[in-house]
Amino acid sequence: MRSACRYNWRMERRTVTPKTSAKGLLLIISGPSGVGKTTITHEVERRLGGRFSVSLTTRPQTPKDTEGEDYFFVTRDDFERARNGGELLEWAEVFENCYGTPRRPVEEALARGELMILEIDVLGAGEVKAKMPDAETIFVLPPSEATLLKRLRARRREDEATIQRRFARAKDEIALARSSGTYRHFVVNDDLERVVEEAVGIVRAARGGEGSMTNDE
């Protein structure tokens, strides 16, 4: 499986995308673990007909993960070859696992005038923004630290020690996002529908009001 996915992520992922006269836009969405950014990202993708960039990772695949949709799961050797070969826009190591954004699918989507969405961390966003300064950037905030901690515990994925590590990292990530100058927009996920509408509005404005063909219309 791993040799196959290594082939697939280097190839153009041909999916049906609504034809649009809007300009291509790279959208970067970030936020700490437990803030709900993945749900927001997929809703923006669904409503605006965008493409979701699928990251490479060396972390183990879980039963809930779908290969090629959630991540491309690769060995560390494969990941290092991609990194050293300049095939990644950005990469990071988090909790002993590597994550990276393949360059080719992003460049091809933008060349076709599509909306390409990256869900990456603050440091990765800074790397991509430096290479692609026209990218639009959104950081998702929790309503409060207490709410974020509650959400992390509610996922019931990890023990308390790991949750506390993620919580500490989340607070550091929020502080870094605010001070980095990378993000044009900070949105608070206090109500999912409201924050999705806010993110959709940001993207439509960045595309000059175009590209607003949605699956709801």
Description:
With 217 residues, this protein is of the alpha/beta class. The chain has one domain (2-12, 23-206): Rossmann fold (3-Layer(aba) Sandwich), CATH 3.40.50.300. It contains eight helices and nine strands. It has a five-stranded parallel sheet, with helices on both faces. Strand 5 (88-94) and strand 6 form a beta hairpin. Helix 2 packs across helix 8 (192-206) and helix 6 (145-154) crosses helix 7 (160-180). The longest helix is centred in the last third of the chain and has 21 residues, at 160-180.
* CA-CA gap between termini: 38 Å
Q: What's the mean pLDDT score?
A: 86
Give me the CATH fold name.
Answer: Rossmann fold
Indicate the proportion of strand residues.
15-25%
Taking pLDDT < 50 over at least 5 consecutive residues as the criterion, the unreliable ranges are: 1-7, 12-20, 211-217
Spatial strand order of the main sheet: 2-7-1-8-9
Tally the helices: what do you get? 8
What is the helix/strand order? HEHEEEHEEHEHEHHEH
